[in-house]
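ugh ok so i messed up the first submission bc i forgot one of the chains. this is the corrected input, ALL of the components this time, i swear. 791 residues overall. if the numbers dont match what u have on ur side tell me asap before i send this to the collaborators (the ones from the other lab, u know who)
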Amino acid sequence: MLSRVAESIYWIGRYQERAENTARLINVNTNLILDLPKGLIPDCEPLITILGCEALYHERHPELTERRIVNFLISDETNPESIISCLSYARENARTIREILPREGWEAINSMYNEAVENKSVSYARNGRRNYLERIINNIQHVTGLLAGTMNHDIAYDFLNLGRKIERADMTTRIIDVRAENTIPDDAPELKPFEDMLWMSMLKSLSGYQMYRQSMQIRIQRNDVLKFLFMRTSFPRSVSYCVNNMGENLSSLPNNEECLSNINTLKNTLNSAPTETLDNDALHQYIDKIQLQLAKLHNDIQKTYFQAFK
Amino acid sequence: MSEKFEAFVDHPFYDEMITPKGNARAYARKLYHFIDKLDSSELDDRQKGAELAIKQMGITFRVYSKEEGAVDRAWPFDIIPRIIPRKEWITVEQGLKQRVTALNLFIDDLYHDQKIIKDNVFPQSVLDKSVNFREQCVGVNPPQGIWAHICGSDLVRHSDGKIYVLEDNLRVPSGVSYMLENRLVTKRVFPELFETYSPLPIDDYPAELFDTLASLSPRSGVNPEIVVLTPGIYNSAYFEHAYLAQQMGCELVEGPDLVVQEDDCVYMRNIDGLSRVDVIYRRIDDLFIDPEVFDKNSLLGVPGLIRAWKAGNVALANAPGAGVADDKVVYSYMPEIIKYYMGEDAILPNVPTWRCMDEDSLQYVLEHLEELVVKPANESGGYGMLVGPASTKAERTEFAKLIQADPRNYIAQPTLGISTVPTVVHGKVEPRHVDLRPFILSGKKIEVTTGGLTRVALRKGSLVVNSSQGGGSKDTWIVEE
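and heres the new structure output, hopefully the right one now
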């Protein structure tokens, strides 16, 4: 397989996953705003922090308003992290490797972008936004299923999956990180009941609420939620699941020694997650450590497969 | 006669579907009645359905404009198919095979002994000024002596009812993917029509192309590695490059994906190392293909590619230098070329052509600019030409100067009354002019597409069918009568 093609497929996986997670995040946040007392946490600000585009936002916008932030994250094509930008990059990558994808796969990726652009005005107001974002999530799930069901599960598919899982692992840690930062202040005990609601919303943004209840069978508590999201190998959006899955994909690729040793490092880090003792500062450092290890894995994949013969 | 086809009565051009009295030609009768039964809004709905399908399928081409830069446009398509009876097609097919055979013999001769020049059939002076003759290719022996493996010839039907060859494209002719996609769109939009008609299938083209390319492989006994070389996603025909690679199950590569090593073999860069490439279907023009030999600044090509080709370690289709015959002055010699190499008369006629390099013709052309179509010898895409009857006095004066400055570079032809096909225009059916581009594959055997790409000038009265200039396309059916 051509290095350039492998790289494109990998990025299709990453961009689609990024678009999907962004959509999930905005939807849950929009819901959460309705439940919490006004002014408790800055409405949408955590979103731009999670997605790492604060600097660009402040360059463009004089103030933080829900509408500005949400438009910036959904439909602003000049923001490279916006959903529409991600869908457009996924489509451009798919276009350069059209010959690898099954025809229906390309058509679905193409239609998904067209639909997102055509209907973007629906997302401006809260009442249409939810449907708009759910539609995007469904469309991405559709592409995922379509490719799983029609594409040869060979090296190309391994790279697609690698891109998807590294992005998902990264997004899950980002979501945890920011939620943990924005919990209820300690000096306001009357607001404690809302704390659980924040953790619940985080699980929901990862479609993990029901799965948490099924597998943990306890009420929502910070430490258990963290344990679930980091370590539950059966939950497909947990960091551990993603890492194990990438390990499987990598083991069928050539020259995989370095990448696999990264996977082992990540596994060790995850197995030793001291969720019981983590206060927010320690949690933040722990997440940093995982993110650095994921970044190293990305660099090694790039070095080994995309740039080796240039 | 039905009201719907009113516009065709006493229509001054040959219509492919309807007689001058407004009735259906025998082979088009069922289509005529089918269209007739659709009312204006149904016709529009079908047309919109086709446009939606094209958007979903992502059938696009790229155009450049100063305002917007490179933009992807949906492929323009008209839903009413163009029908050609099989009996007529068989003759056209024979004519094309004859023509391409002669063209390949001609090119091979020019790069070797130049017998045709020595025998005074083809003038040295034309070759001397050919912009697509490549010195670097002299003496090279491509597999089976074939230079133009993929040829796209443009055909038109004149008001006398005869089919003429307008030009031959031997460099990187495009359009075949649209021919294939048009059939799929028609099936989506008019499934009922296929209950009454059985147009001959066209979908074996990618397999035929693969076989043709495979037959060129320099390594026997191994499965040949065939790649499609594209300039990249900004090329106007990128859609087609990707499409053909996908349909053939080959890699689509860009210049930087390939490397020529010291053994003069071509390799591609894979995730696990380099692997040898045997055949390259290149969709990059000669001049950009190898910066070592041609344009030094080309980033699209592969340094050393010509070296590898000359060493016989890789096959290039079409062979570099094949474009020498893709010249409208050469075109004017086609009847003589066919006669010279094959001892036969041309089955398909040329359009009468004046060569401005001949003194007498030049005089005639300058005096009759208002009636003629003047074309530069080496342009494609309908650029740089003068359509006399549609031109202004200022344009003609300007053109006369261009011709006089470089007569070798211009030819002139009578303005043809090219045929029309019924086309949907805002819920109505009106005649629009069409041409036809069949594709001819030459390897161990010669294969012609069943029909080809019908291009249609969507603007009323326009003769320009190029998609970059307001042209569209139609599905083309070869049917048993």
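quick check: Chain A has two domains: 1-151, 153-310. that seems consistent at least. The interface with chain B takes residues 1-6, 92, 95-101, 103, 106-107, 110-111, 114, 155, 253-255, 304-306, 308-310 of chain A (CB under 8 Å).
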